[in-house]
Amino acid sequence: MLKNVFKRFSWLLGLALLITMLAACSEDDQTQGSANDSGDEGTSEFEGSLLAWAWDQNFNVAALEIAQNYFDEELKMEIVDSSSADIVQRLNAGLSSGTMKGMPNIVLIEDGRAQTFLRSYPNAFYPIGEYFNTDDFASYKIAPTSYDGKQYGLPFDTGVTGLFYRKDILEEAGYSEEDLQNITWGEYVDIAIEVKEKTGTAMISLDPNDLGIIRMMLQSAGSWYTTPDDEINIENNDALKLALENYKKLMDSEAVYMVSDWSNYIGSFNNGDAATVPTGNWMAPSIEQAESQAGLWRVAPIPRLDIDGAKNAANLGGSSWYVLNIDGKEKAAEFLGQTFGSNKDFYQDLVTEIGAIGTFKAASEGEAYQIEDDFFGGQKLIYKFSQWMEDIPQIDSGINTNGIEGILEAEMQNYLKGESLEDVLNNTQEQAENQFK
Length: 437
Hints:
With 437 residues, the protein is α/β, with parallel strands linked by helices. The protein has helices spanning 2-33, 56-68, 84-96, 111-120, 142-145, 167-172, 185-199, 212-220, 238-252, 262-270, 284-287, 329-338, 344-354, 381-389, 401-416, 421-436, and strands spanning 50-54, 77-81, 106-110, 146-147, 150-151, 153-166, 204-206, 256-258, 276-280, 297-300, 315-323. The chain contains 16 helices and 11 strands.
């Protein structure tokens, strides 16, 4: 009988040990895939294949492919080309589920969306500040790519803006290249009205549902819809007030060519219906589609708000690279650091092969940045943008920009129809606070 008891005890003990081991393995698996893990797993000796998510086969995906040629070690990488919207959806779905299973090692995120991810899932991303020097990059890219004192993103392309303009049309109205240097948005509106009167051509094409021009105005003054602490900053925002006043004066004039979608917008300046295009550097290839206009276009610094400290520099667009806190994170960070984070020659290839202007400041010293663009009258277009990039005021776009703009778009229509600016700002402030607090 004692023998049977001993056997039963031994069997139960073995079963308990087995259960304990299985539980431990399960716990390890969950820790490996959790968005809340400490990130201790994985080493720089990682020999697996890295997974990267990015959009645009001819731009961002191509940049990753070029970067692999500059990495010192043999690297296996699978690059998945998805739309930006799809990446956002898949990241949110995966990270909110509490597991990192299926997540990429490297992912591209738009700068305007980065804070939403970093603040919502702070332990899901791997800090990579030790893999590159943030001082080597345009300062305005650091705030949106960092959180709680840690650097999570490696700044990539710039959305540095410029004022593209038709030299021939402006000259017909009596304006020279010098007249467009370092002007304010108020001066731009005055010039616009006169250009329309003297040439019959609209100064600018605008979609009333696109607030890109308001963003450029705000950033020139280092201001935004929210404070760095994510407080709603509408009703007492002097920069926003002045931006909306300039916008209304422009819209009330006959100097605007109205468009309703992207195709109409591109066609407006390709067809000669708009004399200027204030926007990001990435618009140059679209302007160059009108081959018959070669030599007629130039670029000047973007206008600024007439506020103390404002700069003739702003940003519209741009994205950065992030590393997820999963196995292989060190290898992924090393790859980014050695390529996007420090290699000047690599950035020359980005310019010449895909037309990408990075925010790595030393890149502007390379030959590719000195190329004269015949379409723009021999201007060193890339170099100009790289210099203006360094003057862009730094802002913190927070996590509610898109939602606030949705409210502002509706209220701005009331402003254009005659409602007072004070009421529009107060209404926007109240609605934003109700929705986002």
